Amino acid sequence: MSTAEIVSRAQQLFEDLNFTYAREWKAAAPGRKVVGFMPVYVPREMIWAAGALPLGIFGGGDELEVIHGDAYYQSYICRIPRSTIELGVSNRLDFVDGMLFPFVCDVIRNLSGIWKIMFPNVYSKFFDTPQNYQSSIGGNYYVQELHELREGLEKMAGRKITDDDLRRSIADYNENRKAVREVYDFRIEQPWKAPAWEVYLLMRAGMVLPPDEHTKMLRDYVAAARDEDRPIRDNCRIVVTGSFCEQPPLNLVKSIEMAGCYVVDDDYMLVNRWLMTDVPTEGDPLVNLSEAFIKHSVETACKYVDKEEVKGQFLVESVRRSKAEGVIFAAPSFCDPALLDRPMLQHRLTENNIPFIAFKYAENSGQMQPIREQAGTFADSIKLWSEQQ
Amino acid sequence: MTITAGIDIGTGVVKTVIFDVDGDNTKWLGKRSDRIRQRDPFQLAEQAYDELLEECGLGRKDVAYVATTGEGENLAFHTGHFYSMTTHGRGAIYFEPKAGAVLDIGALHGRAIKVDERGKVTTYRMTSQCASGSGQFLENIARYLGIAQDEIGTLSQQADDPEKVSSICAVLAETDVINMVSRGISAPNILKGIHESMAVRLAKLLKSIGAVDGVVLMTGGLALDTGLVAALNEAMVKEKVNLVVKSHPDSIYAGAIGAALWGAFRHEKLARLGQLAMAS
Q1: Which one of A2, A322, B3, B87 is most buried, by most CB atoms within 10 A?
Q2: pLDDT value of residue B173
Q3: Right CATH for A13-165 from 3.40.640.10, 3.40.50.11890, 3.20.20.370, 3.40.50.300
Q4: Does ipTM come in above 0.85?
């Protein structure tokens, strides 16, 4: 299969706001359930172990007209909660049996409450991840949160989630994370063969496909992309950060690359890469998931970093590891976590002589010319005037 | 010796140049411009590029770096792309080494760019979205007046009593012009009025980037409009700004030239870093 065919399949899944694939998956066998989840991270292993399909709800994108959603929120917040409500009230999520709202910000926390009121027959949970990263404190708390989630999912699914169910599920997601890392590593190595928008769609496909099917898609892509001959451009290499919740429109992802930047790392759909190492399949699965979260998870704005000198180091290391020459901060308008984090991260980049630019977007942004101008002139400045070269 | 090509895909015209660069020595080998006229700009650019190479006695394999600018990001065979501001800045320095600022006025927009002695862009401002300061607007006016575009500059300089035209909005300005025609105002006075109105806007744009003295080079399609250049210099005197606005007969190639020269610069830099394979 060619990369074009694989990407076309991923794009169909991405554009389908009726979630036909998930509906068909559910209808294919009796007793199957679908559990929606919002950015940034939920332990999908728990959902999959309950015999349910984890379905990432990452807003409505630029194709969804928000009519009802605006009535629920004030104008000065981001767009993802409005478009998520729009998906709900327009019955596009009427097949979803549960919804998880992980901790991102107050807006998403409030959305979980609204969801409970609006859809009382749907299992809804605000999944409150710890902000203390000591195993004996935050870790223990997180294990309790996982117990609570397990009980809720069992009630919803009408079946027990055994430890062995969880171990099998963890193994499936370990394999999936490995495949995700392979795609990102391949892009670092040969970014001209894995354009940012293709990688974006592949990762987005993981929000609706079961882990095994997604893993196969990713590996097929890398195999096909390695064999394809694509022209090498004289582009600079950049990391995109700040887009971990509300997603940029696909045209924005394309525009950055068109403007002369190879995107060699990003924080889109971080749930795919939240845990940076394999989760052990031996021992207590809840403790294993908790330890992985506490000790081996990525850093984003919605995670508390208790040491000032450490803040931003993760981003600097991402730049080094991916051999990037600069950073583009692309955050949704009104995104408190990303925009409040930005000055601290920029300070760290400045200390490390890493150039950066910043802009904001909404998931339905339509005007790409200013983005192209900014990203393009940034690329020019790196190519022509960077000190490292 | 490094052969580089610069291809500037504008809104109305594709400009192509070939250069031979050896350190600070540059030799301009060839140039051509092609009006797009509802054709596919990428096909047109490819055809123009191949024909120009042939005219220069070269083949594609002789070219070390094909640099695009303007709307050329999607041209299939380009090596690297540079943004218009970056290329117009460099192109301006090529024509006028003393230039401290550039006025790039194309078919759909205008921008003032401040550059240093290397052609590095230090700041810029664009006109607002309204088309009243653009080449397309002047093309429309020429059509209403029944004159050829290349007559605009000469006629404007024959004006004896320029008529004031709205500088805020192209629609209002076009209505103004229609009214003037019906009132029997002569074409030179209408054109001069338009040039004066554009000049005031552009002078403000230059002020906003801190260009207050020295030489400004005009690039883009309207660099060939002698009437606008004259009106700009008059506006500088009126505004008591010590700027001299200049143009060059080949100013429309500034973007393509800048692209070709930056392409050579990049090629040399990548060679020095042992990364030429990244731009093959």
Answers
A1: B87
A2: 75
A3: 3.40.50.11890
A4: no
